[in-house]
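Propose amino acids for all 277 sites.
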């Protein structure tokens, strides 16, 4: 084993902390947290990239749990306001936005992660998602969140289902869908958060139950706790990003960043392929 590398099947605490610290802001911005957690270790040749699929998926559960807990705290006012103003109409909209990702996630999560969670497909997701965001943001800003219809909710749900492909970004997909439907940037962000919380909570509970049944090897427990804690702290410390994205600002900078990162991954793949010939 090379000096400084973790033993096979183990995860370095420093890498867990780094990925947890990255997860918070990446989840709050439309740049794909799952894509970053996958490609950053691959780009830097970290031991994390050598873990088996189950351990990597379990670690992502830990990161999402940390982020979800922090969001429940930081967005508690907005959540309580939504609950107080709950109505049959709002319940219908949330249900329609929840159904597509719930069906796709429950039935196809494993095949999606195995076949679409590779560096090439993540790069495609980053680039394609960025281009769609840039095009969608050119739509006129003419609608408010209160004007959302069942069709809008269903389209937001389909966008969230598409975001199960690592690299697409749930936040980016729902923002693009809302902007395509003519919602203002501020209201698109509000809608994105509203439809996201049930999906994030449901996915965390489902994956957490699966993780509990499967169990966690003792050799990685400290790294998982460190990653979840770092994700919690980084999310708490990054909530100011919500207000930055919510302002009437173009989504183009995020789209450019996504295309640049995806292109970097593709260039690295081309270089590796050339060296292996």
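Proposal:
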């Amino acid at each position: 084993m090379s000096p400084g590398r973790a033993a096979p099947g183990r995860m370095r605490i420093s890498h867990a902390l780094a990925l947890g610290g990255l997860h918070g802001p990446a989840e709050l911005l439309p740049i794909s947290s799952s894509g970053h957690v996958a490609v950053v270790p691959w780009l830097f040749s970290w031991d994390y990239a050598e873990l088996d699929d189950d351990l990597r998926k379990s670690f992502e559960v830990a990161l999402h749990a940390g982020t979800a807990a922090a969001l429940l705290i930081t967005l508690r006012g907005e959540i309580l306001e939504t609950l107080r103003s709950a109505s049959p109409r709002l319940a219908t909209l949330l249900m329609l936005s929840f159904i597509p990702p719930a069906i796709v996630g429950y039935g196809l999560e494993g095949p999606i992660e195995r076949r679409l969670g590779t560096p090439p497909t993540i790069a495609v997701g980053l680039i394609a998602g960025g281009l769609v965001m840039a095009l969608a943001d050119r739509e006129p800003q003419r609608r408010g969140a209160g004007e959302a219809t069942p069709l809008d909710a269903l389209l937001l749900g389909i966008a969230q289902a598409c975001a199960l492909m690592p690299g697409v970004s749930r936040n980016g997909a729902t923002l693009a869908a809302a902007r395509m439907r003519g919602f203002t940037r501020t209201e698109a962000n509000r809608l994105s958060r509203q439809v996201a919380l049930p999906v994030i909570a449901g996915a965390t509970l489902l994956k957490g139950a699966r993780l509990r049944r499967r169990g966690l090897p003792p050799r990685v427990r400290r790294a998982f706790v460190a990653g979840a804690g770092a994700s919690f702290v980084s999310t708490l410390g990054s909530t100011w990003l919500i207000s930055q994205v919510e302002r009437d600002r173009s989504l183009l900078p995020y789209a450019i960043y996504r295309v640049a990162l995806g292109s970097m991954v593709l260039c690295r793949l081309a270089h590796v392929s050339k060296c292996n010939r």
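The radius of gyration is 19 Å. Residues 13-275 form one domain.
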